From TrEMBL:
PANTHER family: GLYCOSYLTRANSFERASE, UDP-GLCNAC:BETAGAL BETA-1,3-N-ACETYLGLUCOSAMINYLTRANSFERASE-LIKE PROTEIN 1
Gene3D superfamilies: Spore Coat Polysaccharide Biosynthesis Protein SpsA, Chain A
Coiled coil region boundaries: none
Domain Glycosyltransferase 2-like: 43-177
Domain of life: Bacteria
Entries under Pfam families matching the protein: Glycos_transf_2 (PF00535)
A molecular function (GO) term: hexosyltransferase activity
Species in which this protein is naturally found: Formosa sediminum
Name of the protein in its database record: Glycosyltransferase
Transmembrane segments: 6-24, 281-301, 337-358
Amino acid sequence: MLDIIFYSFVAIVFIQLFYYLVFLRTFAFLKPQPLPEQNIPVSVIVCAKNEEENLKQFLPSIIEQNYPNFQIVLINDASGDETLSVIEDFAEQHDCIKIVDVKNTEAFWANKKYALTLGIKAATHNHLLFIDADCKPVSKTWISEMTAAFQTDKSIVLGYGGYSKVKNSLLNKLIRFETVFTASQYFSYAKLGIPYMGVGRNLAYTKTLFFEANGFINHMNVRSGDDDLFVNQMATSKNTALCFSPESFTVSVPKKTLATWLKQKRRHISSAKYYKTSHQFLLGLFYLSQLLFWVVGSLLISSLYHWEIVTCLISLRILIQWIVIGKTAKKLNESDLVGLIPILEIFIILTQLVIFISNKISKPRTWK
């Protein structure tokens, strides 16, 4: 039995090394290429539900963008606070703002995709740039950086949306590591010609592509996935571009408690089962090999069975991961996470396992 477990572990390690050295290294060692400014008209889409305070804090960073021709479409998604009043105050002061006030309907109750659809239809320009209400660009050239990636044949641009740092917080490091790890995957897969997701905190695509897909109709019944499911459906090796220059990043407010973060991740992960089968297989195999690497490796170490070989294999895999994810973290301005990568990975694996089980028992129903 230990022989079977040992050889299984060897296979697991090789699967992990394959993913890191073939897939994830693609983005880790990729350098951003400077692109000429497009200066194309852009509509920035912000969907807000009960976000009065975040809008007051972060909307000015969008309004103050150094870009010649952009519109801001502010969507009030049936908020119960003073979000609409805040939006109206900003609109009185800035002509670039267009308001879309969404009322709840029985058919689309608490459905962000319905609100986004109305906002996209109201947008004046063909090129759309999405950002969340609790999010801000890190520079005044965010729009310029993201729209520069809209070359002749590109209709989707994947960007990076990080989270602000909180000192002495393990939860904050866990949230940011999960974000870096996810970005490592979707950037790498897209670079290899198999794009499978993007994040709505920093994502761009054309209105033409949206209507070509008939909007979110294929997954309107799925509460989450306004970003990743749309990209999964419409992104191809030819129409998808990456934007990861430091000036193109956005930063969001991280969750302050484990419970609220888990609730958010349950909603995000619930959409993965609607990905294309090939994407589900690649992502599922990677996660399963991650889980088994630590479980089977720990079992063999505790039994001292071929412990020298097992120790070498564990060390090799951790070293490769450290190099690949470490370079990615530095590229995404998350260098402080590098020293904790193996520990944070174990936490993420356990968290994803808990979320997977929770989503099997009950489904998250609203986006907020």
